Amino acid sequence: MKRLNITLPEKVAEALEAYENKSRFIAEAVIEKIKKDKKTETDTLLTEGYKNENSENKQINAEWENATLESWPE
User: Fold this and answer.
1) What's the pLDDT tens digit per position in 22-41?
2) Are residues 16 and 8 in contact, defined by beta-carbon separation less than 8 angstroms?
3) Is this prediction's pTM over 0.70?
4) Where is pLDDT greater, at 60 or 42?
5) Can you say how many angstroms the Cα of residue 28 is from the centroid of all Cα atoms in its chain?
6) Mean pLDDT score of the chain, rounded to an integer?
7) What separation in angstroms does the CA of 12 have from each of 2, 34, 42, 51?
8) How far apart are CA 40 and CA 56, in angstroms?
């Protein structure tokens, strides 16, 4: 465990008073926020990757379509 000295807005500190184990509550809230942020970051990276792959796939498909159509007799 590591002891921290933090500053919170007054209203947040007042709301926190309702909890018996403030340290555990804060730790759980921070862990939840970190997980949410990581999931958002992962989702963003996956979306960007999909978009990049999708545009590359469209380009490859267009190239193959041209090559395929060239071999068809008129």
Assistant:
1) 999 999 999 999 999 999 99
2) yes
3) no
4) 42
5) 19
6) 88
7) 22, 19, 29, 40
8) 24
